[in-house]
Amino acid sequence: PKASVVTSARRTAVLYQWVQDLIAAAQSNAANGNGEEDLLTLRNDLAAQAGQDAGGADMASGDGRQGEDGTGAADGNQSRIRTLGRGKAAGNAHGLTAEELRRLLDLGAELSLGEGGESDGYREFITQLDAKQLNELAQLREQLCEVGATANPGRFFTRSGRNDSYYAYDEWDYMLGSYRHNWCRLREIELNGDDGEFFGRTLARYAETLPQVRRHFQRIRPASYRLVRGLEDGEEIDFDRTVESRVAARMGQMPDGRVYRARKKEARDVATLFLLDMSASTDEPIAREVRYSPQDDDQNDWAKTWQGREHRLSRPRRVIDVNKEALVIMAQALEELGDTYAIMGFSGHGRDNVEFYIIKEFNQELTEEVKARVGSVEPKRSTRMGPAIRHVREKFKDVTCRARHMIMLSDGFPQDFDYGQDRRSHAYGIQDTMVALRELEMAGVMPFCITVDKTGHDYLRQMCQESQYLVIEDIGSLPRQLPKIYEQIVRW
Hints:
By secondary structure, the chain is an alpha/beta fold. It is about 40% helix and about 20% strand. The chain has 14 helices and 15 strands.
């Protein structure tokens, strides 16, 4: 009851160090084939040390943020303890208690039962579990699953002296039916930006579309005025209320003097985050590339030949280019409408290297720097959607708008080389993304997924409801369709 956050963190640090020393000693003794008594002594000493107050532990804490030494599960080396079954005599060794098992499971240790040979003088050893302890272990797992039924918010960690900081996020393991706590490391990265050429070229390409989009969004504004009835003073008389008041007076009742009405402006209170998939697959061209052939040259017109060759040698439009064009059109439309919006991207490689790219924050204006960042977006690596979606909740933390939305633009299913144990199956990533989308919705942010993958129905229907996703058959139409989609799904 009297424990503080600092005290708990210190105890956790000592316990983590205890587990690491224990595993190292076990591995060393297993390699040498002896020293079981020494290992038992080490275990007892460390167990006693773990029970003491770790007053000398070094913790970096401030504003609710923890240093890397304050957690064991966030470390990349996940503890694994394998039970060896029956082996040589263990002397006076005894097994792990229920409380020690609980601590190990809290730290993310994976316990599995192996096979061994029979031996005289068998007694419980640190890596041996009998039937009773296995039953206790199963009960502990059930209790921990109940405790871990809700993902923890992202935790911010800093490495002292390494100039490195990251967010640690839980990940849903559908095979375990529970979360892997602090399983993924996500780092925010700011794009440097290009010279603004892409943004300007996109505005020129859609010069005919942009005025139509602006006029359409301008027509949305009158909808922000609502008719308010029953006012004591207003712009005009409410004839229905006036008749009711006269009837009440004739019947000898007290008439209601609130017989005016007025149109009052109700400002839009909307914030939307556009999350862009920056995986390597978005580097695919949307149409077959036109190759140059010398036979295409017009020998009679050298200028025409040169212009045609230059056009044919230009880089074809890719999936990422179309998505960027859609964001350019959307940014112009939202500037006209006045809604708050942010633009982010994500990619990465492995659970320890999830990348979250900052293009435009909610509190930033559409400056030349932001326009340059949009143009510099390029395909990166994998598509680990779960932690990226969970970080969206972090980005909405300081947003006070009444209506909050996330629109994700992607071109395929969630995948990463360690997104689940079986790389041939996408079930793990789909299940984790499904849970992440539910978490986001429970936090008050309405998600909507847009994909240009024609097979998107196969996995999107597992990740979210049919009303929360859309498959774009013609990818080239996305820049023109996105403003219409935004108007339909955004509720304020």
